[in-house]
Specification:
CATH architecture: Alpha-Beta Complex
Radius of gyration: 16 Å
Number of helices: 6
Helix content: 25-40%
Distance between the termini: 41 Å
Number of strands: 11
Oligomer: single chain
């Protein structure tokens, strides 16, 4: 476990965590909604580890955590109306489903729809990790199979998953709710999951 200041993340510690990500390992880290599992988007074994922990089926929508909206068009096809929505609601606790570009590894896409989740969290540790990594962090909510809520205590995460993740980042309490998930691939936004974040404007 590594303790990082939630408002002023220490660059030295951020680099230690990112070194693990670059080495193909899985980390547990805080976001603005709940704790999440993360790895580099091109690391097949790490992605498989996250899939096993989550017991995700083949149609699971994985998410790319971006540092800012300027990266969006590299990994997702986004029209003007979708761009305006994302710009309005980020950084924040929302995941947006969009059509993926060829920059996204096929194993991360929804196999039928070829979509990918994208998100820009309002969390300084998460943003610092992505900034230092220099590419998106492949991410999934740290919610174990059969559990109603995501895991929130870094010590519990270490006790349960310490043998499967290389680093647990203790950034303090960050919430019980996963993100709200909004599908922007159609003519109108579709609410896929109601989580943290107001979704009333999408109805």
């Amino acid at each position: 476990m590594i303790v990082i200041h939630p408002e002023n993340p220490q660059l030295r510690l951020i680099r230690q965590v990112v070194d693990k990500v670059r080495a193909g390992e899985v980390i547990a880290y805080p976001t603005d909604s709940s704790y999440a599992l993360g790895c580099a988007m091109g690391e097949k074994k790490a992605i498989e580890t996250i899939g096993r922990i989550r017991q995700a089926d083949k149609n699971h929508n994985y998410t790319l955590v971006l540092r800012d909206i300027s990266e969006l068009a590299t990994y997702a096809r986004v029209n003007n109306s979708a761009f305006r929505i994302i710009k309005t609601f980020t950084p924040g606790p929302y995941t947006f489903i969009l059509d993926a570009t060829r920059e996204v590894p096929r194993r991360l896409m929804n196999p039928k729809k070829k979509t990918i989740g994208v998100r820009i969290p309002d969390n300084q540790i998460a943003l610092a990790l992505v900034e230092e990594l220099g590419q998106p962090l492949m991410s999934a909510t740290l919610q174990l199979p059969g559990e109603e809520y995501p895991m929130t205590d870094p010590y519990d995460i270490e006790a349960v998953l310490g043998h499967q993740v290389a680093e647990v980042v203790d950034g303090g309490y960050c919430g019980l709710e996963p993100t709200s998930v909004i599908d922007l691939t159609g003519d109108t936004p579709e609410i896929i999951r109601r989580g943290k974040g107001d979704v009333s404007l999408f109805q």
